[in-house]
Write a structure and sequence with these properties.
single chain, 400 residues, alpha/beta, Aspartate Aminotransferase, domain 2, 2 domains, binds 4'-deoxy-4'-aminopyridoxal-5'-phosphate, binds glutamic acid
Length: 400
Amino acid sequence: MSPVKLSARVATLQPSATLAMVARVKELKAEGVEVLDLTAGEPDFGPPSCAEAAAKDAINAGLGRYTAAAGLPELREAAAGLAKETTGLNWSADQLLVTTGAKLGICQALMALVENGDEVLFPVPCWTSYPEMVQLAGGVPVPVQCGEDHLPSVEDLAAATSERSKVLLINTPCNPTGAVYPKALLEEIGKWALKNGIAIISDEIYAAMTFGGAKHVSPIAVLPELREQSIWVGGMSKAFAMTGWRMGFLGGPSSIITKLAGLQSQLASSPPAISQYASIAALRDGTEDCLKMHSAFEKRCDLVSKALATMPGVDCPQPQGAFYAFPGFGYFLGKTDSETGKQIQSGDDLAELLLEADRIAVIGGSAFGKPDAIRLSFATSESVLQTALERLAARLNKLS
Ligand code: PMP
Ligand code: GLU
């Protein structure tokens, strides 16, 4: 036991449940165990080839040095283009900040907006990192439960509002549910935010990933006045399959972005240089590769939702975006597996059983605020998905 007393900030911090499960699967694979891996929200594709070529060129040209703290001007320009594509709004380079991944970007945005004790609302189910990020920034997490369609109602947001409410953290398309927020709901949410002076952090990292005709609408673009109190979040990890390059973007009023750049100059000096050169190339010339990935995801989404719909007792609204399905297993709770004798009390128990008995790795729903669910990532091949879904159906048949 170390004699050093840790800060309360880290002493109570929970490590990322998604990354813990990803690490566990890696360990099993290293031991030679074959696992059908439906854990990580990480595309199984490589980045656009132009990005890899640009990175190699940048290394050869000796460009792996600190850049401007806010990111390379050309990348801020290119990110303004991505922000326009995603939100439909016009952006200038000084309204964009390049961050070391969107995850850290969201933490920085929270640090900039939240005073100790300020409340940050977010619809639940939500990405596992949100509550921890809010606490790290000194804020109080206020989860707002979604309905069966995995969307929040304005009435529920209003009921959760207090004098200390400061920020709404919203994510569309949503990790873990795949929900895509409709425009009419976003307008109602926007009016509530304006009326209550609540800032919006709009996590649109999955904006390019919508399926089955669903359309992404940016929460900050539905009412013109919202822009002044909103921060847009985007990045290279998902649509560009550049997870390990750690490139994210924040967009907002230039006064806020300038402050965030100052904060970043103290936190990170600058975002990684080589990744920035790669991202410029990806944003300029990577569209074709991204479209190919998108059509693969579209097919997988269809495969997964159709298979889940044939499983009696499984409750899964059709995912419309991101690359996850989030079925509920309420019907199965309390049932016992005839093969192993294990009783299922939660989605986490089911995830454990699937890993042990069927070698399928998924993430239990408690990490996302819905304990009776599991998250299936379809960022993996159709054949893996097919086999995993067959095994899942067979396992459910053994529960009684
Ligand atoms: N937001 C959501 C909802 C996510 O699922 C992720 C996944 N990594 C991120 C933000 C952060 O992405 P990154 O840090 O890789 O840019
Ligand atoms: N966002 C991805 C996921 O939910 C990657 C892991 C993480 O950062 O949580 O699986």
